[in-house]
Amino acid sequence: MLRMGNRDSALNLPQLNSDYDPENGLTLNGYHIPPEIIVEILQKLAPQYLLTARLVWKEWNELVIHVLYNNYNRKFEKQHTLETLPFDLCYFTQFSKRLNKNLLKNVNGQNGFKHWNIISNGGDGIVIESCPVGSDSLPSNVEEFNSHTSCFVTSYGLAHKVQEIAVSKDKYLSHIINKFKPDIYASEWVAARFDCGARYIMNIQIVCQGGRYITEKRITHEEEQWQGSKWSKKEIIIQEYPDDVDTIVFEHYGQDRQFWKGHYGMKMAGAVVKLLLDTVKL
């Protein structure tokens, strides 16, 4: 709750000359508007409109900066100011919806194979099960599933599927990655059938402009026959990568270990690639 006129409130408003002055930006149509009221209004605006509001007056610029940093600190549980956190990082993390979300799409196969490139489709081919068959159901209340229950399922021949994130085509994403170098996080949930062993590989590539340099990291996982059915989350974090990132490539592979006809191979769902913004290099 705002305490009107109290600059030492929980909002920690910047020190402004809030006295009546037609030239200080706090007087509109002859009415004096306390900075607390302006902050309340600014907090309702989308980030892109806040940039325009900065141009109204010097005092408004200071209030906009306050609102942006207050929002950032509340979201990431930090205590940053303009002196400790660059303005572009503070702003872009709120303006760009992609920076705060999973960069992969259609991760449960809810839209078929849209956004995926199938490199290898061995055995009877990779398919989508609306609900897992022969294993536990997907865990409930897992954010990356977005309430979907479907999964990708592999066969007795190796399946290899890829999704590319075009970093260089998103100016906000490219700016944050190449200037501040946050850790890049990848994960996926996997499960085998209860009656068939299975193997899985997740591989992440960070490709520079022109493909001249690649950082790569992978994780492998195998389930023995009669030991599967439970879903587990596999994770990778890439902390070091070169400048001028062009593309992030997410790859996963799966197949069964008994070479049974049909779809007894590894099941995969809820793949994630995202930036860990609280790890940025300042």
From TrEMBL:
PROSITE patterns reported in the protein's UniProt record: FBA (PS51114), FBOX (PS50181)
InterPro entries reported for this sequence: F-box-assoc_dom, F-box-like_dom_sf, F-box_dom, F-box_only, Galactose-bd-like_sf
GO CC annotation: cytoplasm; SCF ubiquitin ligase complex
Residue ranges occupied by any FBA domain in the UniProt entry: 92-277
Pfam families in UniProt: FBA
GO terms, molecular function: ubiquitin protein ligase activity
Domain (F-box): residue spans on this chain: 27-79
A biological-process GO annotation: SCF-dependent proteasomal ubiquitin-dependent protein catabolic process
Protein name: F-box domain-containing protein
